[in-house]
Structure to design on (328 residues):
């Protein structure tokens, strides 16, 4: 049993990681500034409110809890916002992570598991994408994540840090039974927006482009259930704490789902039709993004368990029955 400090532990992925780590027998401490996080999502260990740029606060939390490892999920994540406000993203995601890494070095904490992203690859040159695909981000968000991959790799070389860079594809789904799920403000993601039309929270769903070179003309993405993501984080932490080597690994199912297939899944799962209309392409969207997850399977023994219908079923229960009771 280890003590894991989870930055962003009150957020969507961070809270699911706290759940999974706690189920695996570890002690978790959630560190979050509540800018995007929800205090109600912190249920599996103590909550420490704080900002990753606040070195004094981080030092106090490290002193109080003596973590064995840090799982760093805290970040600004909305790609469009990163284009509008790049300075905020560099400040939070780069400066903040460097402060955190500095505190880890001072305190002798040598295990760093990092929420990274397929956005570090930029435009796909081949599909599926494996970890040797060139990393050339096309958004400030992607750059901030790549910079911290590079910084932690260099710090590992200099001071003996061990890292796992976990490059998420499209995190989706929820844990309605545990009262945690997706809630962004504003919401920009396809699955919640499509489900909101069925709940009367949106008038219609726009399909951003139906003339792509994909099997039905709509964008293809690799949606991975957030519980499967969380399971991979537990495996990465246990690998590093158990003496295993650093790694960078894609976390995706390896299966692509188009926007139209997403809507078909919603139809199957809910029995209801999303009112959807084709619209212009969204600037910056790649036609297709699919993970080659062989490395995570091999090195972490990870097998994603849930397909698109399970993702939709959990997201639907979360948004239709649970979200309002947990978050108002
Ligand atoms: N999408 C869409 N309509 C929306 C939101 C998203 O057609 O209202 C599409 C988007 O173009 C992309 C896919 O759904 O191809 C997933 O988008 P999302 O924002 O969920 O994730 P991203 O892949 O951009 O990280």
């Amino acid at each position: 049993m280890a003590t894991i400090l989870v930055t962003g532990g009150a957020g969507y992925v961070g809270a699911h990681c706290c759940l999974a780590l706690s189920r695996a027998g570890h002690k978790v401490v959630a560190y979050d500034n509540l800018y995007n996080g929800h205090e109600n999502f912190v249920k599996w260990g103590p909550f420490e409110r704080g900002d990753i740029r606040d070195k004094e606060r981080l030092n106090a939390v490290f002193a109080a809890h003596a973590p064995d490892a840090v799982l760093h999920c805290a970040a600004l994540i909305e790609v469009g916002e990163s284009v509008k406000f790049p300075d905020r993203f560099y400040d939070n995601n780069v400066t903040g992570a460097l402060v955190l890494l500095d505190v880890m070095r001072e305190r002798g904490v040598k295990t760093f598991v990092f929420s990274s992203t397929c956005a570090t690859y930029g435009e796909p040159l081949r599909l599926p994408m494996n970890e040797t695909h060139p990393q050339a981000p096309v958004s400030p968000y992607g750059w901030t994540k790549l910079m911290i991959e590079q910084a932690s790799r260099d710090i590992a070389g200099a001071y003996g840090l061990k890292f796992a860079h976990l490059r998420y594809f499209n995190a989706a789904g929820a844990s309605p039974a545990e009262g945690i799920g997706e809630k962004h403000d504003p919401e920009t993601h396809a699955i919640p927006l499509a489900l909101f039309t069925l709940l009367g929270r949106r008038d219609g769903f726009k399909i951003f482009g139906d003339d792509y070179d994909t099997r039905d003309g709509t964008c293809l993405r690799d949606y991975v259930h957030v519980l499967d993501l969380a399971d991979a984080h537990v495996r990465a932490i246990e690998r590093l704490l158990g003496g295993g080597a650093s790694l960078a690994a894609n976390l995706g199912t390896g299966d692509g789902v188009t926007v139209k297939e997403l809507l078909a899944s919603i139809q199957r799962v809910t029995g209801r039709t999303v009112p959807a209309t084709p619209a212009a392409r969204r600037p910056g969207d790649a036609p297709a993004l699919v993970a080659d997850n062989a490395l995570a399977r091999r090195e972490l023994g990870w097998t994603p368990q849930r397909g698109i219908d399970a993702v939709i079923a959990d997201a639907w229960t979360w948004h239709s029955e649970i979200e309002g009771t947990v978050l108002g």
Summary: The first strand starts at residue 3 and ends at 7. The chain has two domains: 3-172+224-251, 176-221+254-327. The chain has a mean pLDDT of 97. Residues 170, 188-190, 193, 205-208, 219, 221, 259, 282, 285 surround uridine-5'-diphosphate (CB under 6 Å).
